[in-house]
Design brief:
The chain has five helices and six strands, in the order ααβαβαβαβββ. With about 150 residues, the protein is an alpha/beta fold. The longest helix has 15 residues.
């Protein structure tokens, strides 16, 4: 049986979160929460964030913590040379119910702009091919974050 969520004051919730995950960036976490809520609305394009921070600073970990707070999961999309594989990976993450989707270390990826093309082309709906199945179209209900320790060249 699911327990009912307990309502607490915002500052109390942040105190517990910061005690559990020391060093978590509150501004980044709040931005992820807001963009996740924005993505759930059916108006306009789905949010795409670009997040740059030091290696090991918790960019990907914060995605998972916030996703768990929202009752969902964060899924990583891997960039490859095959645009259809990138689109399929993104589509499966979105179709699998992820509330946050991210691409890690975009700045270290060679030819990143060509590889990001399927991701940058998303709007409110996203169309992709599933292996050994027909094309599928779905409504984008999660923001996509491009995270890394350096900017792409």
């Amino acid at each position: 049986m699911r327990r009912r969520p307990v309502q607490v004051e915002v500052e109390t919730a942040w105190s517990v979160l910061e005690a559990t995950f020391p060093g978590i960036n509150r501004g980044y976490a709040q931005t992820l929460i807001l963009t996740a809520f924005k993505a759930q609305q059916a108006d306009g394009p789905a949010p795409i964030l670009v997040v740059i921070g030091d290696t090991g600073s918790g960019k990907g970990g914060t995605q998972h913590v916030v996703a768990a707070m929202l009752g969902g999961s964060a899924q990583s999309v891997r960039l490859t040379d095959n645009a259809k594989d990138v689109a399929r990976s993104l589509g499966l993450a979105l179709g699998g119910g992820a509330c946050l989707v991210y691409v890690d270390e975009v700045g270290r990826t060679t030819g990143v702009y060509a590889k990001l093309e399927p991701i940058l082309a998303i709007h409110r709906t996203f169309r992709f091919d599933i292996k050994y199945a027909n094309e599928r179209e779905l409504v984008v209900t999660a923001p996509v974050s491009l995270i890394g320790s350096t900017l792409p060249m």
